[in-house]
Amino acid sequence: MLTLKVEKRDVHIRPEAIRKTGKIPAVFYGKKEASTAISIPKIDFLKVWKEAGASSIVTLETPEGIKESLIQDVDLDPITGTPRHADFYIFEKGHKLEVELPLEFVGISPAVKDLGGMLVKVLHELKIEAMPKDLPHNIKVDVSVLINFGDQILAEDIILPKGVTLLANPKGVVATISAPREEKEEETAPADLSTIEVEKKGKEEKAEAVPEAEQPAL
Fold this sequence. Notes:
The chain is built from four helices and 14 strands. By secondary structure, the protein is α+β, with helices and mostly antiparallel strands. A seven-stranded mixed beta sheet has the order 1-5-6-7-3-4-2.
């Protein structure tokens, strides 16, 4: 079980000041849970976030008691990529959850290995519904079924774990194989030097044929 001990946060304290103490500002909320500002030790959050992702249950130990949640969103620093704020969604016990789980592509496609095709990953997440206890960490997609160019894996083709229901469009393309692109070298026609020479000579002869009366005065 993944657990985080949190404490209530004074919203009047600037987030930068909280981060300097080794903590990150966060908030938890739910359909029947008021939005509450909290702070979490950064090192603890990083360990749990790495393991939980967006689908594993995270137990929050709050001053008001235990609350079961999912990590709803993590705001990352655009420069360092480290978390600087987190949202936790407190779900209702006994109710199913609708979440988008990351897809993990496994296996080797014969169309890629033997034919030189390109694996095109159309989707990277899949919307599903499940009870909190049945939520998988991610959904595996076996690409070894892609044998020829144009072969596709649809959302309905994915074998979901027990207790998980697909909410995404069942006919939506998850992955496909495209043929390798042929690079054609552009052929550049050699310059016709004789044409250039003739054209130049023609211009010179034309200039000599101009009557003296039409020549510009010096």
